[in-house]
């Protein structure tokens, strides 16, 4: 039984349709991600799942129970869903412990607020169990042991995001939603924290749905990723499959780096290109559900990743260096072929060639990705 299921969900703001017939399934303990450019509808999907917006069509299920469709919408507080926001949304007048305690059950939250100098409501009963132990366990979980007495302004951005995560995990939600949670952090911290968040979610067995425009972040955190475009999911798949077996040309363009070269499908199913024949690989075209064999003579566009083009001084095929980007251990070269087509190549940085120089290259393709080209 899936934890979360969206079935043909649509939503619009006035005449502008933001989500269009979107479906996905997320299982218990699984981390999913909606990946796409700004305006593709990914944050709206998160709001629909949280209960902040009702769907115009379709339905949303949590643990096989319908929580939203065109007729009903279970309020957010009854869905047992946690949320981590882009700007942390911490209470500045509460300490770290107070913020995390606010995410506990109502009785525990009252006690924590009282400890911060915020008196409980008249008539509120004293909770039977103290929440301090739970808060300390959560602090340890997110790597902030001994920091409970501090206030949000005394913490770094990464520490504040850890507090927000701990607060969201405190009530043990069925599902955690994360809306661009690392976008306010610098690149190095973002990469480190994204891996830490994945470890925390896996350790607690918490399912999560992340929204981001950063594919590196999506691949680092998620088990399954949905590439979105104009309110639809182009492909809901593992990061490996998105990179090596993109279902559509749009996914192939969006995920990873690469370039397309033209080719023709041969009678044996291989593809002839100006770089040579892709030997031992079948020409396939994916339609989002399966990959089918392309017939002989079909004009195609073949996706070549930077690691598919190998620098080889002994190779007879030459290409001109148009641009290069230093990446430490490697250079990323932009190369121009004899036809004028451009490809990318990763070359170890101890080979430093100048722009305008011609270098030998050869193909080393393990996964062929080809799409039918209009004649």
Number of domains: 2
Count of helical regions? 9
For the biggest β-sheet, the strand order reads 6-7-8-3-9-10
CATH superfamily of the largest domain: P-loop containing nucleotide triphosphate hydrolases
From the alpha-carbon coordinates, what is the Rg to the nearest angstrom?
25 Å
Give the beta-strand count.
Answer: 22
Q: Catalogue the unreliable spans.
A: 107-113, 118-129
The CATH architecture of the largest domain would be: 3-Layer(aba) Sandwich
Taken as a percent bin, the fraction of beta residues is 25-35%
Q: What is the 3D shape?
A: globular
Stated plainly, the CATH topology of the largest domain is called Rossmann fold
Question: What structural class should be given to the helix and strand makeup?
Answer: alpha+beta
N-to-C span: 46 Å
Mean pLDDT equals 87
Helix content: 10-25%
Provide the CATH top-level class of the largest domain: Alpha Beta
The major β-sheet equals: 6 strands, mixed
């Amino acid at each position: 039984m899936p934890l979360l299921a969206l079935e043909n969900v649509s939503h619009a703001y006035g005449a502008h349709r933001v989500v269009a017939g979107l479906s996905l399934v997320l299982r218990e303990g699984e981390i999913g991600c909606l990946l796409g450019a700004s305006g593709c509808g990914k944050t709206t999907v998160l709001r629909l799942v949280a209960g902040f917006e009702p769907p115009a069509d379709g339905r949303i299920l949590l643990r096989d129970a319908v929580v939203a469709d065109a007729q009903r919408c279970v309020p957010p507080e009854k869905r047992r869903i946690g949320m981590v926001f882009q700007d942390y949304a911490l209470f500045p007048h509460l300490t770290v412990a107070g913020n995390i305690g606010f995410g506990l059950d109502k009785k525990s939250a009252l006690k924590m607020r009282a400890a911060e100098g915020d008196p409980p409501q008249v008539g509120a009963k004293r909770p039977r169990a103290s929440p301090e132990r739970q808060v300390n366990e959560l602090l340890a979980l997110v790597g902030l042991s001994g920091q409970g007495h501090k206030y949000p302004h005394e913490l770094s951005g990464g520490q504040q995001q850890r507090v927000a995560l701990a607060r969201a995990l405190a009530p043990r939600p069925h599902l955690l939603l994360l809306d661009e949670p690392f976008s306010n952090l610098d690149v190095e911290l973002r990469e480190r924290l994204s891996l830490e968040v994945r470890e925390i979610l896996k350790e607690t067995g918490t399912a999560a749905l992340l929204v981001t425009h950063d594919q590196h972040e999506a691949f680092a955190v998620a088990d399954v990723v949905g590439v979105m475009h104009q309110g639809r999911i182009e492909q809901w798949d593992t990061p490996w499959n998105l990179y090596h077996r993109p279902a559509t040309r749009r996914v192939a363009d969006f995920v990873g780096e690469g370039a397309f070269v033209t080719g023709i499908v041969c009678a044996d199913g291989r593809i002839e290109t100006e770089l040579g024949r892709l030997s031992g690989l079948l020409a396939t075209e994916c339609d989002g559900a399966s990959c089918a064999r392309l017939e002989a003579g079909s004009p195609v566009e073949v996706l070549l990743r930077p690691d598919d083009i190998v620098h080889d001084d002994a190779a007879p095929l030459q290409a001109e260096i148009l641009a290069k980007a230093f990446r430490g251990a490697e250079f990323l070269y932009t190369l121009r072929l004899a036809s004028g087509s451009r490809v990318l190549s990763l070359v170890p940085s101890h080979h430093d060639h100048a722009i305008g120089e011609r270098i030998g290259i050869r193909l080393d393709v393990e996964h062929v990705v080809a799409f039918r080209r209009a004649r």
